[in-house]
Amino acid sequence: MKYRYSLEKGSKKFTCPSCEAKKRFRRYIDNQTGQYLGDDIGMCDRINECGYHKPPRKTRKKIISHSIYQKIKPKKKKISFIPPDVFKNTLIPYHQNNFITGLLKLFNSEIVTSLIERYHIGTINDKVVFWQVDEYMRIRTGKIMQYDPNKLIRIRYPNWIHTYFNLKNFNHDQCLFGLHLVKELNINTPICVVESEKTAIILSGYYPDVIWMAAGSANMLSKERIKSIIGHPIFLYADIGMEKLWARKMLGIDNVKIVFWNKALEIDPEEHNGADLADFPHPDERMPLPMKLK
Ligand SMILES: [Zn+2]
């Protein structure tokens, strides 16, 4: 029997929406039309390091009714959480942490300390851990990243905490980076969402009165992932060139605004395609913050 949808055969691979590794992500194809499904519908071949797999949702019922598939396809598993000790053991002195060394070139130690506390930034050797703590203070997972301390540019691909510590049968379900902050907020408080954890942290250093969260990557923004902040005015600061993708992903959700920050900061989108807010000098009085946009 031929399935309606299957992973594309051959060597063509894309950038993984979860770990961002290039040419490691195979997408699903509609065998009736030959078209790709959504750009996040597929499977990463870094099975151990990343493990991202999003099958076509609408077809799940049909697929499950197939008896062979039923045997191998487990029921939707419960979300796993990181044991608090694993989390706490990363909240250690930061002198080796290259990301923090980079932050200290932008901010004084008082501000850096407040950022570490605000975002529960962790350390493993010289690497940084961006913990994903949800609105119930449950630890979904952590992203381990290596940075060049001089330019705060990412080196190599991220690894996940549950992979690094080899946590068995860990069913990870990501949340927004910074989601835990929602707990303290009045429902009228605006929330700004950027693409990367680094950008959220840096912008929070420059504009501490504003709540900054990160999707993790352009493709990781989804209706499901912003569920916990719906009701708040949401302002999306996509990387340059990703505004349309983010607008499409949020279609039908009220109270979400795409901010064309490059226009406000007079940045040429062609020349700076793919750039993010942290790539430019701050603070900038032209910066389109929520209080100015309302
Ligand atoms: Zn991946």
Describe the structure.
- The chain folds into three domains: 5-72, no CATH class; 78-175, no CATH class; 178-294, Dna Topoisomerase Vi A Subunit, Chain: A, domain 2 (3-Layer(aba) Sandwich), CATH 3.40.1360.
- The longest helix has 11 residues, at 109-119.
- The protein has 294 residues and is an alpha+beta fold.
- Strands 1, 2, 3, 4 and 5 form a five-stranded antiparallel beta sheet that branches. A four-stranded antiparallel beta sheet has the order 6-7-8-9. Strands 11-10-12-13 form a four-stranded parallel beta sheet.
- The protein has helices at 60-64, 67-72, 84-88, 98-103, 109-119, 161-164, 197-206, 223-226, 243-249, 261-264, 290-293, and strands spanning 5-7, 25-30, 35-36, 42-44, 53-54, 122-124, 127-133, 139-148, 153-160, 191-194, 211-214, 234-237, 256-258.
- The protein is built from eleven helices and 13 strands.
- The protein is 22% helix and 20% strand.
- The protein starts with a strand and ends with a helix.
- Bound molecules: zinc ion.
- Residues 16, 18-19, 21, 24, 44, 46, 50, 52 line the site of zinc ion (ZN).
How many β strands by DSSP? 13
Q: pLDDT below 50 for ≥5 consecutive residues: which ranges?
A: 59-72
Broad shape: globular
Helix-and-strand structural type: alpha+beta
Largest sheet: 5 strands, antiparallel
Q: State the helical fraction.
A: 10-25%
Mean pLDDT over the residues: 90
Bound small molecules, by name, code or SMILES, are: zinc ion
Discrete helix count = 11
Global Rg: 20 Å
CATH topology of the largest domain: Dna Topoisomerase Vi A Subunit, Chain: A, domain 2
Describe the oligomeric state of these chains in a short phrase. single chain
Termini separation:
55 Å
